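Sequence in, structure out.
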Amino acid sequence: MAGQLPYDHRPWALRRTLALHDHTMRNTIGFVTRRFTVAKREAYRQHPELETARLVAVQEKRQAIRDLPELLATLRARIEEHGGQTYLAANAHDAVHRVLNIAHHEQVRLVIKSKSMVTEEIELNRALEQAGVVVRETDLGEYIIQLAHEKPSHILAPAAHRNRHQIDELFAHDAAQQGVMPPRSDDIHDLTAYARQRLRQEFLAADMGVTGGEFLGRRNRDARPHYQ
């Protein structure tokens, strides 16, 4: 299964109108967003300290952006101290070219990926596929939209626009193509069990792994940012 998600070249006005008239998608997104809101409200009710933690995280992120060159230098030094290798790409093209070189040198046939918005932005999947490498997304939401040949609809929930009945149809089609047993039902547990079984096979067969990195290092834990 190819990993590239095709860009929709249809005019925005047409795509908007079609989406607004897609009642299944509208109901699904409405359900998901309400569920997100309720879950967030309940989490804050049970843990009032979350707002303080959120503010600290915001300041840490802003400070990390200001200190990025220094932090990257420290990170690279720590990785290399432990036997790893690092490469600081100048731009998206440079990053993609570097990954392609590694894949070619190691004769990679299958790349297994965890969720990474950076690779989405630089279109790494497309470059790998064009080089004859199969790419498999393993984040459940990303896996679903990869089977559907779609782009992520949400940064946290890429498949938020699809309901479990549609996902069951996608998995059943994938099972028929692969000659394996489809999900037992469209129950969430059965759907996730199917994805787990399929992805386990991909993990065992993969020649290369790619992952995003939200937090690759940490500051002095005694340091605390100030905020207002």
